[in-house]
Amino acid sequence: MFYRENGQFKTSYQADQQIFPIVQDRWFILALLLLAFVAVPLLATDYWFSAILIPFVIMAMAAIGVNVLVGYCGQISLGSGAFMAVGAYGAYNFFARVPDMPLIPALILGGLCATVFGVLFGLPSLRVRGLYLAVATLAAQFFADWMFLRIKWFTLDTPSGSVSVSNLQVFGLPIESDVSKYLFCLAVLCVVALMAKNLVRGAIGREWMAIRDMDVAAAVIGIRPMYAKLTAFAVSSFIIGMAGALWAFIYMGSWEPSAFSVNESFRLLFMVIIGGLGSIMGGFLGAAFIILLPIFLNQALPFVAGVVGIEISTTVVSHTELMIFGGLIVWFLIVEPHGLAKLWSIGKQKMRVWPFPY
Amino acid sequence: MGFFLETLLGGLMAGMLYSLVALGFVLIFKASGVFNFAQGAIVLFAALAMARFAEWLGTAGLGPAWVVNLMAFALAAVVMFAVAWLIERLVLRNLVNQEGTTLLMATLGITYFLEGLGQTIFGSDIYKIDIGMPKEPVIAFQDVFEGGILINQEDLIAALIAALLVAALSVFFQKTGTGRALRAVADDHQAAQSIGIPLNRIWVIVWCVAGVVALVAGMIWGSKLGVQFSLATVALRALPVVILGGLTSVPGAIIGGLIIGVGEKLSEVYLGPFVGGGIEIWFAYVLALLFLLVRPQGLFGEKIIDRV
């Protein structure tokens, strides 16, 4: 009743092939964009920007990248943290070494560094698959950890190994205030999300999905497994690398190699699994869930303890957070193994048939 | 030559310890098809339980050290059984027939949970496990090589314990009724179920066995390094061992462990100085990767056959 495609006839191929074929969807997305670009900057406080919104926007972008690889092409990867690190340090080196390097080309070049790295470590996927591949991609993770810690050239020979950037600007506008940081990340995210959405519904995306569903069968009908898998690795690591560069440049400002540890890889994988494999929307939902949950627990636990009347120390709080986080993830996987995106589509279906559920 | 042999021996013994952790992975993967990322957290949990029980029993004054250690071991084993039963009951039973990735993620969730729970109950400081292992190294083969070979007694005993455990496990798997049922389930879930083997009970047993293996591994690692949070990352060191040996093979875990152990030590000693050191951890992964390129199922894994 609320959500119905009846009567929306398509009279041209162009109308049939648009991203959001249903008019309600178009209005919804438009409203969402307005909310994100206009309403949020007006209403949000500094705390919201630095603790929730900016991490969410960047992580959503990284989750889209992981989703291209894991959700669409079916290659489980635990090396996402490494791709982020390569993107960040690649962008940093271009930014710091080349005089007058503008920010956006530096980010893109960082993404390209991550692409090269990703394709290199994607090569084993031609031979190895499934869980073996997941463990093999950990090689990328540990190699990157080691590389940025030990090879001082990447960190401009700073003795502590931590690097920082300053004076960021785009087209002459400084990226310093929280609002400008947020808007910049959001703009990049929109471009990347649009690009990813169009890729996965195009020819290459169908090849990825064929490979995911059954690679031997896909090869039989004439899809080149090597091309499909390596392009998935390339696109995914480009997006993750860009996200990593943004994370380092915009969110952290100064960082060291441990910022992109294996835990970051796990977190990204959680985002796509909880958000929903094989769905761009899932990346957003998963990122929101994983970013918000620890903050929520951190705020709620001392409050609950105060109500019950127990004094708890910060270590106990952090351990309890770990426990609840782990428990919730397991619970969530049991209740809805297909992720939040599946819940979303169930909700849409319900709205479509309401008020007559049969 | 003496130095080379010394490194080699050190590598072999370290490898034995890796295979202990790897064994836990293989046991669970074979029987239930779950890639158990939580093995590291289970090792940490078991070691914490053992260390704290020993400490508490020790202060209660319940006899000499070996009695206390034995009782602590038994108590920790009971705790691990409870954990295994709970994991099967609350998690795995509800995730039957899900994809490998979902199960992997669920075990990651268990990892976080166990890390939090273990440190909440048992505390998060560094604890000692003292099972009376001799610490001082001995020098052997002095008449063969100049200066002899330095052997760490502690490592030697640890390797012996590991070998004993593996022997006991193979007897359990080959000779007992339960072991036979476990092997049947590992071969084919449905066939095993159709001849009346209760899958759920088998899974509990397998997680219990893996828990005991983790306890032994935690005990040895703990007495070497002290029981602390970093013990949980031992699992990440053992992963290349598992894929090198093959996810489905117990002998593979042992031999993979030895190869990785030796490879790590030799690379660190002979290659490390040229590239800045600290290459142990990724070298193990790259070594495993190279093996995988030749044999995608690992050295001893079952052949992967693709059918359309």
Give helix % range of chain A. over 70%
Task: Assess the beta-strand content of chain A as a share of residues.
Answer: under 5%
**Tally of helical runs of chain B:** 12
What is the CA-CA span between the terminal residues of chain B? 53 Å
Question: How many distinct beta strands of chain A?
Answer: 4
Instruction: Specify the overall morphology of chain B.
Output: globular
Looking at the overall shape, the CATH architecture of chain B is: Orthogonal Bundle
Instruction: Identify low-pLDDT runs of chain B.
Output: none
What does this structure look like?
The complex is a heterodimer of chains A (358) and B (308). Chain A starts with 12 loop residues before the first helix and ends in a 5-residue tail after the last helix. Chain A has a domain at 35-260. In chain A, helix 4 crosses helix 10 (225-252) and helix 12 (280-308) packs across helix 13. The mean pLDDT of chain A is 87. Chain A has helices at residues 13-16, 23-43, 46-72, 80-97, 103-122, 131-150, 178-200, 203-213, 215-220, 225-252, 262-275, 280-308, 314-335, 340-353; strands spanning 163-164, 169-170, 173-174, 254-255. Chain A has a two-stranded antiparallel ribbon. In chain A, strands 2-3 form a two-stranded antiparallel sheet. Chain A is an all-alpha fold and 358 residues long. Chain B is mostly helical and 308 residues long. Chain B has a single domain (2-294), classed as ABC transporter involved in vitamin B12 uptake, BtuC. Chain B is built from twelve helices and two strands. Chain B has helices at residues 2-32, 39-60, 65-90, 100-122, 153-175, 177-187, 189-194, 199-225, 234-245, 250-270, 272-275, 280-294; strands at residues 138-140, 149-151. In chain B, strands 1-2 form a two-stranded antiparallel sheet. Chain B starts with a helix and ends in a 14-residue tail after the last helix. The model of chain B has no long low-confidence stretch (mean pLDDT 82). At the A-B interface, helix 6, helix 9, helix 11 and helix 13 of A face helix 4, helix 9 and helix 12 of B.
